[in-house]
Model the fold of this input.
Amino acid sequence: MSSKSKKILIISDFDGTISTVDLGNQIINKFATASLSDIEKAYVKGKIGSRIAYERMAKRIKGSREKMLEHILAIEKLDPYFPEFCSLSRDKDIDVKIVSDGLDFYIEAVLDKHDLQGMEYYANLAVFGVDNSFSIEFPGRNDFCGRCGTCKSRILNSHRLIYDKIIYIGDGYSDFCPSRYADVVFAKNILYQRCEQEGTPCMSFTDFSEINNYLKENYSTTSQQDCEV
Done:
């Protein structure tokens, strides 16, 4: 297969990556009706995965969709170089998908606010009750593992037959697993530390300006050129 026919996919995490503010944590901390420290400690220590953590936390959260969105839109902060990244990817015929272990409603709201409607994303589903009750559904779960609400590795690997190269961008705990299966990894924060510890090849980044430079240097606008990293 010639380099001109290579198909490239970029998969990116949302909270802490596209959004420099972890909006999932902000929602949890703002609308929790009781302490969540016991759940958070169990999650950080690896005793439970995010799906169980979310299920337990949701029982201690109350709030309407409207109030949560009002809070989110007041504090959200998109990586300033992400819109350029989206334009570059389109120009270079590179597909982009968002995979998040966060919640669908605020991802969609933030993308709409920044005129990035229509981006494909995978996330957990927030369900709001009439009495301000709150629950979460997990359409992207992997029942063979069960740890994460959204199994990013399963989503990544489901695209293997379509794409010749998959680039992964992330920063946190839920990005550990998929980083092992990507062809190229951009990592920061906790993900970068874990990649270093496990010997997973990756490139450190601070914001999307560095990823934009990578795309400019390695892919032309008229054809996708495979490159060694």
